[in-house]
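Retry 2 of 3 after timeout on previous attempt. Resubmitting structure tokens to design endpoint.
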């Protein structure tokens, strides 16, 4: 072999050992994404309480900041600019200043300015001088610490806080925190979407389809890659999954695919990509503390003891869940109680012992074989939730509690919860951000619209405020764990555990990276199709 040939052979071997270069994104194509029901509140994300109202609307809007779509683990370090080019904390986390992008336009051509930011969050926090009011406001409590929002010029916004709150930036990065146009009436946003996002509304036929097209004036250069996104609304779960398996849909929907379903789907379509995540969705039992018998803590504790967490994980969720308390447990989250903590708590111990204690407490409260406790179990008519309700019914039956099932569509379900029009309910509770502030203020603070159980404790409220302003992460964690132990002792809202997610997509769908939070990767600006 000549020296030239030897040199060429060495060069070819060296090239073969180099890491493969990332494939350049392709432009064009329509993404067909799964959607299981119509928009409960239209296109108004700030009014919705379900991912069905967020996931197919998020591509239309933008936030001040957002979690990096390409990084599955969310933290303050993964927050990136969106409408804000940069931001700065001042006065020891009491003032948060945003410096906005210039030249951004709403989909209708109006210029975006700091006035839109002030308008949005004054409306959400229900400031005294807010120029409009949301019909439903599930996350008002996220912003209760905001004292004022100032706009010194069209490109600067200042959030002034009553006290330090480092986690405010996390909540502003949630998919639940888009900026609204100040010039568009709130009522209009229920039937149309006017945003600054990568896609603009093309067509919406209620109960049939939601379609977006590429926004040619999007402020991020060369984005989005897709020509558009289609969300055909398919109400029956089996039909949705069959459409995915047949290739009629390119992606599944967060929370849709359970562990057993993912295994079946993979067998039928071996090339489909399934990513396991923590869905940050919990299975819970809501107890209305304002209605008998749940104004009695003894009865609430009996309900909590009756729920077998081992059966929940292994039977109901087939291993695709983890038993836990209020916060997402490790390794999926940073703030949950440890396994050692949980095994000592009522409801997480030996099931036979817990059920015996449940019967004893029911007897103490005046119920028994001759006077069984009879209840109406309310739930949402969504397969994932009705499965939970039927499981809870069986668990309660084993300790002598009789229930009948009442199912409601989403458009009825969430207003009923807001009115506290239930006694006991099986519910899926999720958080827009895996941070204690989002969880505690939204679900447990006195007066919060999402505090569906109506539990109210001034002492607990003080504990929530104290952990919120603690800057030291270790000290804050200790406070958060104490709050969870208190909530368990009061049987405020019995938690069975947190479901794992199994997001499915076909290999030709690129840059759609499932996060450990369902709500924060639906923007689609970086997604492309390799067809």
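Retry 2 succeeded. Sequence:
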């Amino acid at each position: 072999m000549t020296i030239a040939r030897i040199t060429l052979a060495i060069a070819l071997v060296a090239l073969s050992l180099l890491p493969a270069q990332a494939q350049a994104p392709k432009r064009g194509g329509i993404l067909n994404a799964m959607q299981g029901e119509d928009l409960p509140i239209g296109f108004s994300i700030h009014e919705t309480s379900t991912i069905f109202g967020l996931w197919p609307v998020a591509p239309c809007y933008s936030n001040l900041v957002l979690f990096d779509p390409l990084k599955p683990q969310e933290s303050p370090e993964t927050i990136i600019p969106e409408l804000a080019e940069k931001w700065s904390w001042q006065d020891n986390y009491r003032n948060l200043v945003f410096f906005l992008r210039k030249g951004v336009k709403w989909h209708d051509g109006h210029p975006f300015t700091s006035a839109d930011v002030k308008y949005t969050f004054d409306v959400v926090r229900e400031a005294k001088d807010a120029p409009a009011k949301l019909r439903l406001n599930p996350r008002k409590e996220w912003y209760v610490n905001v004292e004022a929002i100032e706009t010194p010029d069209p490109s600067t916004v200042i959030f002034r806080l009553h006290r330090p709150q480092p986690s405010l930036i996390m909540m502003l990065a949630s998919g639940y925190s888009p900026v609204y146009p100040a010039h568009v009436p709130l009522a209009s946003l229920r039937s149309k979407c006017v945003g600054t996002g990568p896609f603009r509304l093309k067509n919406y036929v209620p109960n049939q389809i939601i379609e977006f097209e590429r926004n040619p004036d999007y402020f991020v250069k060369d984005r989005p890659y897709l020509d558009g996104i289609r969300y055909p609304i398919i109400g029956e779960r089996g039909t949705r999954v069959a459409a995915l398996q047949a290739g009629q849909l390119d992606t599944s929907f967060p929370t849709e695919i359970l562990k057993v379903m993912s295994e079946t789907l993979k067998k039928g379509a071996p090339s489909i990509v399934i990513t396991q995540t923590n869905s940050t969705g919990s299975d819970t039992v809501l107890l209305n503390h304002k209605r008998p018998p749940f104004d009695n803590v003894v009865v609430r504790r009996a309900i909590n003891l009756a729920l077998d967490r081992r059966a929940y994980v292994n039977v109901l969720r087939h291993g695709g869940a983890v038993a836990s308390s209020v916060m997402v447990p490790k390794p999926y989250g940073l703030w949950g109680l440890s396994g050692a903590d949980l095994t000592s708590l009522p409801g997480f111990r030996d099931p036979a012992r817990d059920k015996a204690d449940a019967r004893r407490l029911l007897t103490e409260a005046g119920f028994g074989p001759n006077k069984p406790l009879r209840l109406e179990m309310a739930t949402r008519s969504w397969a994932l939730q009705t499965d939970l309700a039927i499981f809870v019914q069986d668990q309660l039956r084993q300790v002598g509690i009789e229930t009948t099932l009442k199912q409601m569509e989403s458009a009825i379900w969430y207003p009923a919860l807001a009115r506290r029009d239930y006694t006991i309910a099986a519910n899926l509770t999720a958080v827009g951000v895996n941070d204690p502030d989002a969880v505690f203020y939204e679900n447990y603070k006195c007066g919060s619209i999402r505090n569906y159980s109506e539990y109210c404790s001034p002492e607990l409220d003080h504990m929530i405020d104290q952990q919120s302003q603690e800057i030291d992460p270790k000290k804050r964690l200790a406070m958060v764990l104490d709050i969870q132990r208190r909530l368990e002792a009061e049987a405020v809202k019995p938690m069975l555990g947190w479901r794992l997610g199994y997001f499915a997509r076909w290999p030709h769908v690129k840059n759609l990276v499932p996060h450990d939070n369902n709500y924060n990767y639906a923007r689609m600006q970086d997604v492309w199709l390799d067809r």
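Attempt log closed. The radius of gyration is 25 Å.
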